Amino acid sequence: MLGVKPSTVRAWISRKELKAYKMGNRRYITRQQIADFYYQRKSKDYVDMTYANGPVR
């Protein structure tokens, strides 16, 4: 649905960029949480932390 790898989604969740509910050992993301995430990323104040520390070697 998001068009990215599961590891990317896990990274967003661990950095608290994407909110998710945890039930047992699984995480669930609602459509509203995805919409909020996209809205936040489109704002001018957002900094993508994926490559903030430089390229991975």
Separation, N- and C-terminal Cα atoms: 29 Å
Tell me the β content.
5-15%
Low-pLDDT regions: none
Number of strands: 2
Oligomer: single chain
What is the overall shape? globular
- Over the alpha carbons, how many angstroms does the gyration radius reach? 12 Å
H-E string: HEEH
Strand order of the largest sheet: 1-2
Number of helices, where a helix is a run of at least 4 consecutive DSSP H or I residues: 2
Largest sheet: 2 strands, antiparallel
Helix content range: 25-40%
Structural class: alpha+beta
Q: What value does the average pLDDT take?
A: 82
Give the tags:
57 residues; alpha+beta; 2 helices
Helix and strand layout, with pairings?
Blueprint: H1 6-14, E1 21-23, E2 26-28, H2 31-42
Antiparallel strand pairs: 1-2
Quick structural summary:
With about 55 residues, the protein is α+β, with helices and mostly antiparallel strands. Helices cover about 35% and strands about 10% of the residues.
What can you tell me about this protein's structure?
The chain is of the alpha+beta class and 57 residues long. It has a domain at 6-42. Helix content is 37%, strand content 11%. The protein has 2 helices and 2 strands. The protein has helices at 6-14, 31-42; strands at residues 21-23, 26-28. It has a two-stranded antiparallel sheet. Strand 1 and strand 2 form a beta hairpin. The longest helix is centred in the middle third of the chain and has 12 residues, at 31-42. The chain is globular. The chain starts with 5 loop residues before the first helix and ends in a 15-residue tail after the last helix.
